[in-house]
Amino acid sequence: MADILNVLYLTSEVFPFSKTGGLADVSHFLPLALRDLGFNILVVTPRYRDITPDRYAMQRLDVSLRVPMFFWDEQAAVYQHMLGNRVPVFFIEHNAFFDRPGIYNENHTDYPDNLKRYAFLTRAALQLARLFAFKVDIVHANDWQTALAPMYIKMAYNHDPLLAAAGSLLTIHNLGYQGLFAKESIYDTGFGWDLFKPEFLEYYDQINLLKGGIQFADIINTVSRRYAHEIQTPQFGFHLDGVLRSRSTDLYGIVNGADYDHWNPETDRLIPAVFSRDDLSGKQICKQALQQRFHLQQRPGAPVIGVVSRLVRQKGFDLLAQVLDTLMEHDVQLAILGTGESWANDFFYHLPGRYPGRVGSMITYDEQLAHLVEAGADFFLMPSRYEPCGLNQMYSLRYGTLPIVRATGGLDDTIDDYHETHGLGTGFKFYPFSPEALLDVLKKVIYTWWDRKHHIQAMRKRAMAQRFSWAHTAEEYLKLYAFAKEKKLKGWY
After folding, report:
1. From CA 260, how far away is CA 470, in angstroms rounded?
2. Quick check: pTM over 0.85?
3. Is-same-fold flag (6-257+470-490; 281-464)?
4. Banded pLDDT at 492 (limits 50, 70, 90)
5. What is the side-by-side strand order in the sheet with 180-182?
6. Helix crossing, 367-376 with 281-293: angle to 10°?
7. Separation of alpha carbons 135 and 127, rounded Å
8. Could you report the per-residue pLDDT of 196-238, keeping only the tens digit for each?
9. Domain limits of the chain?
10. 485 to each of 9, 37, 39, 357, how far by Cα in Å?
11. Coil, strand or helix: which one is 88?
């Protein structure tokens, strides 16, 4: 890299400090990988209630940050932590906005002032760069919470010596969440009614923060190549497909990396026995422990399909519910770990009573059990309606637990389908989102397990050799940063 770039990375979540989904993992591992490429990168995120100095090694800076809103200014305190001893993470403290029991909601109800909270975060991050005299080359925004950043750069900081020349990248982690608010909240964005227009923030007589970011960002990306295409269609576009198609030449897909330090069967301290691609004996020990923990019949030869997921319709578990009785006519076991929608919690909770010794379910989330399922199961089921990237299929590959996935988003990008003649592939795919298609692929899995063991063994070895590294992902972001800088130099598109 000829030039060292200064990157301001804005995010509403960073693992291990705050997490509701994959954004937190990306906001942890991508900045570290970018720093290893030589970037100067500042990560800015809220200091939520649970992020305390006594829990994490962080210090309060001797600064008071002035954050302009519309008719008024707010003041913020700033804390700092060094992520991985090499990436500074700055936590914006504003008790009225962030000292709350939840991150985005409480008791399943969104905070009504979320627009104001995250507009404040975004402006605070830009003000922090000015305070530190950090001349920004790239502003990297993530999802609707910080999607106003490209608008601020072009509309509010267009003459600022530290920010005006910055290119902007907006990463969409899940298009299903867009930041929709009543139009009367327009002043909370820091803008006025002149930006409440279809080409800016207006969306069916509401404010749509993500739409604004898409319209103003120099470059846009999402977290897999397939998902970048899918979100430009009515089926997956959540009514923004037209806007995204209008920016199609600036829209890219980059698959996330996986955390192989934490998810590695050769070193995993959360499983009863470690194993490797060359010595799978420990996997059989893990399978025995899994069957015991989930009260399944102790049959080493029986195929076990594992699930670790939110049990929601987006993840396709309504399909599994529809085919489960027919599936249980075959010789197979299920180990299900997760919690989600009330109908799913109730349905999967009662399955062990209906199929004792053949279905085990834990309606909760437990990190150690998640590792046990990944290590001990023979197959891992992800029947998603849509999946921007997905991580569990990557972990499953590393543990030799062959994924069964719907061919959508990152699942399609990361899994090679089984070839019945030659035994190639790293997992099993189904295509239409239907109970019939899911049942067909599950029958194929069971048939292959019992009648083509050599194919299973070859696929398992092949799967365990797959790697989706954050270093490679960071290299792909480097290209997008270059595109964003070039686009900014050319001026308004």
Report:
1. 10
2. yes
3. yes
4. low
5. 180-182, 206-208, 202-203
6. 130
7. 12
8. 999 999 999 999 999 999 999 999 999 999 999 999 999 999 9
9. 6-257+470-490, 281-464
10. 15, 18, 14, 59
11. strand
Counting other chains too, the contacts that 418-424 makes at CB distance below 8 Å and 24 or more residues apart are 418/444, 418/448, 418/455, 418/459, 420/444, 420/448, 423/452, 423/454, 423/455, 423/458, 423/459, 424/459, 424/462
Q: The domain at 6-257+470-490 falls in which architecture?
A: 3-Layer(aba) Sandwich (3.40)
CATH number for 281-464: choose from 3.30.230.70, 3.90.700.10, 3.40.50.2000, 3.40.47.10.
3.40.50.2000
| Radius of gyration from C-alpha coordinates of the chain | 24
Sign of CA dihedral 483, 485, 491, 493: positive
58 in helix, strand or coil? Answer: coil
Q: pLDDT tens-digit profile of 144-194?
A: 999 999 999 999 999 999 999 999 999 999 999 999 999 999 999 999 999
CB 201 within 8 A of CB 211: yes
Residue 57 in this model has a pLDDT that exceeds 60: yes
